[in-house]
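hey all, quick one before standup. I had two proteins in the batch that finished overnight and I want to keep them in one place so we stop losing track of which output belongs to which input. First protein below, input sequence then structure tokens straight from the run.
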Amino acid sequence: MLILGISAFYHDSAASLLKDGEVICAAQEERFTRIKHDSSFPVNAINFCLEYANCSIDDIEYIAYYEKPSLKFDRLVKTYLMTAPSGYESFIRSMPVWLKEKLWLKRHIRKKLKFKGKIISPEHHQSHAASAYYPSPFDKAAFITMDGVGEWATLSYGYAENNQLDIKQEIKFPHSLGLLYSAFTYYCGFKVNSGEYKLMGLAPYGKPKYTSLILDKLIDLKDDGSFKLDMSYFNFHVGFTMTNGKFHDLFNREPRKSESEITELDMDLAASIQLVTEEIVLKIAAYVKEQTQVENLCLSGGVALNCVSNGRLYREGIFKNIWIQPASGDAGSALGAALYVWYKYLGNKRLTINTLDRQSNSYLGTYYNDKDIEAFLNDGNLPYLKLNPSDLIDTVSNKIAGENVVGWFDGRMEFGPRALGSRSILGDARSKDMQSTMNLKIKYRESFRPFAPIIRAEDVREWFEVDGNNDPLNNFSSPYMLMVAPIKESRRLAVDNSDNYNLENVNQSRSEVPAVTHVDFSARLQTVHQESNQKLHDLLSVFKEKTGCPIMINTSFNVRGEPIVESIEDAYRCFMRTEMDYLVLGDFILDKKQQPEYNETQDWKNIFELD
């Protein structure tokens, strides 16, 4: 049985495909259209899924759409009625697309795909919950879903066992932890639904001076983690901005303009809302643990991408084991909706596993073999060297150890916002200059943003302050780059932390791996497991043999404002546009110095919307 899952029309549209309950493929639409966070109907992602499974739409028995449009429309109408006439302009602008397209979603799907089977729409947070629990390694778990808003729910918790999954309680719009965090994202000059991770990265530069003010004025937080926002400070429920004049008066400034100077206020606000978010998550988790009395927790929803909060939740030890959906945003809900149909709607049993999880390590996207790569290179008359796997690993490890930056394009594309070693840019974490080099010459992004380390799972305790509590295999596991951990004291260097507000402090050597050590001695970890990515694990092993260090930089294969590369052509284009030194395509390696001159008709740095 084939079940196609779809998410669309808000942000991060995606498609996924199940075959007899097994997740066989999934991809975001943005990777194909090259429009970051593309919200359009995911025709390209759907076509990829069908091609990968060698099937047609006639072979699909069910389509699962990730939310109920009628409920979302209900929320829009009732919100307007409760706030009228304040939201009139927003309401009028949104109605045409709802009345013409979104309300008639099933009709739209049938017409667009020529689909004749059954279409099922779980609620938004049911899809999030399904994406959190069903791919996890657990047979019994609590789950928490946290995002901006679905139909009405913004946060929910529940209990799942075997194939059953039930939401117990919800917090409803307009009271939303995700939208609260996004309000500060907007106020500090970053793009909503895109720049939240920048706010998280900015937080260590500031001091949480405004925590009490936020808790006193903006949010009424209870001991069980439930909360209400004071909506007189916000505008997202009635207008086109997140905050209003009363919010701006509270902090004595208008919102920062995008690309303008980041001030001490922005840093302190980032630190404050990050701390508030962590405290709310901890209170909710403690309440959920008390209510469910289980050791396992699954997380999904956009807030679950806050890896600093996740790391603190893990270290607090409220739950013994934590699994986080790697595509926690709306893209992952395409997968969750399909899983909901297979397990909850159809009642199929979950099979036992001996792997990290039931999601194939999130390597679910497109794949290009050596024949595809060689054809591309020969067609373009591009100089390259083809090596056997062991020689390739040896060569690349030498290049990285020599402080070269390597584009790494290998295997199936990752599903979710993180590059996990298939569409990655790799560098030497020991280099004191690599963080600045990769930010300014490769990624063309803000200098304050840290990079993530990849490390062999068996080496993680030698370098980071973790223990063995969050993995059912009794080893610390963060395969999806969704947890932050402090670097071990023994690996740190003495530094002067007196100037909190200097964004250039990120370039200061703070540990033996300065390129991946943030200003607060933290790092967003990706553990690499032999059974999940043998080639990347081998690369780290050989790098360790040569340097004594099992850690490299791993950042996504893209530049600022562009989605992660999908195709061979995308990878080569990004390689030539930047100051990367080498490009690995499967078993082929390309030297930048040997490549022909690369010309484009447009100034590519201005093609993509900066965020």
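OK second protein, same deal, sequence then tokens:
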Amino acid sequence: MNLSFLNVRSRMLPLLVLLAVLPIRAAAQLPPVTTGTCSITKMSYVTSRDTASTSTSSTAFTALPDMHVYFDVAEGQCVKIEFSMVLSSQTPQFLDVRVLFDAITEPVAPASIRVAAIPFSQYQVFTFLVPIESGLGPGNHNVQIEVKSSAGGPISTSKRKLTVLHN
């Protein structure tokens, strides 16, 4: 009687156990999440002209000049920031997008988002959040979108929209 298949299975058992344990270890190393609830009753927004295209080759964050919104908050709450654009690049590279909230980046989650810029146009949507725990108080605030190229090659953006949901 040939029992060689048992030998193969017994050698694979430690591998199967390792594969079963890996997802548990990976999940245990995830960063903590932020959760919360807030009241959003107002929307402030800006859109670029359909024909307006902006190109950047900067490897340092640079403001998109038409993507700046000023708004007034009645009471301290969270803020949801949505930014969309059509993105293209002549050569494959990455574009980093971040939000400045009242001219600083610290209360915004995530701090930045990296997306692939490829040789044909693609529509991208990004969502950022200023959590209620950040101490957002009532009064005047502003949001500015900044971008940078990973490789220093030209990246074009067009049909940009910035929407800020607040109270």
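Flagging for whoever picks this up: The beta strands are 42-47, 53-56, 62-73, 79-89, 93-101, 113-117, 122-130, 139-149, 155-166. The mean pLDDT is 83.
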